[in-house]
Amino acid sequence: MSNFVPALGFHWLTPAYDAVVRATTRERTVKVALIKQADVRPGQQVLDVACGTGTLAVWIKQRCPEVSLSGFDADPDILDIAARKATRAQVSITFEQGLASRLPYPDAHFHRAVSSLFFHHLTWSEKRRVAQELYRVIRPGGELHVADWGRAGGVFSRGASVAIKLLDGFENTRDNVQGRLIALFEEAGFANVSQQQTVATVFGTLALYRAAKTAVRDLSFG
């Protein structure tokens, strides 16, 4: 994972990202559901990996101001947007730039990690590495909560998902629409991995996943 895919696939589309996401992904429904599912508590350390323009991070901080929240993304331009959004919302969020395959955080640091519309950008090997890194930085008893494209459940859903495949690549999105994210998180070491709910959108089915870290496990990545 030596580079990154910018928002909407191209840097020149970054300014339009928020408008497109709002119009096509039922953003408020999905992200509010993800926040409720994550159930963050005062005093917790929370990571929003691939935080994009910071909408999810800002909403988490507004819902629970007493959390310590870190937003992490590879794209410095989109992090600038996120930082400005947090300033306008008058919330304190630490934004850091880098690759999710090499998170700059100590082991067992976060109580919660959240991610929205990120994993479908990655190849299977990149997905594995990121899942392993998330397992590493989440503390025992902590949880991972992910919203991303899920298994296409019907004719309409399968047809609608073609647009996402064209934009983000058939290979990268195949794992999502085949429902492989549960196996991905289990392979990384997470327990009690489950799909909590789905939301139908114009681009296909968004699925919300929960995974728990219940014990310390030694991971050798090679």
Strand-helix topology:
Blueprint: H1 17-24, H2 27-38, E1 45-49, H3 55-63, E2 68-73, H4 76-89, E3 94-97, E4 110-116, H5 124-137, E5 138-149, H6 155-168, H7 170-177, H8 181-188, E6 191-201, E7 204-212
Parallel strand pairs: 1-2, 1-4, 2-3, 4-5
Antiparallel strand pairs: 5-7, 6-7
Helix pairs in contact: 3-4, 5-8, 6-7
Description:
This protein is an alpha/beta fold. 39% of the residues lie in helices and 24% in strands. It has eight helices and seven strands. It has helices spanning 17-24, 27-38, 55-63, 76-89, 124-137, 155-168, 170-177, 181-188; strands at residues 45-49, 68-73, 94-97, 110-116, 138-149, 191-201, 204-212. The chain has a seven-stranded mixed sheet with strand order 3-2-1-4-5-7-6, with helices on both faces. Strand 4, helix 5 (124-137) and strand 5 (138-149) form a beta-alpha-beta unit. It is globular, with a radius of gyration of 16 Å.
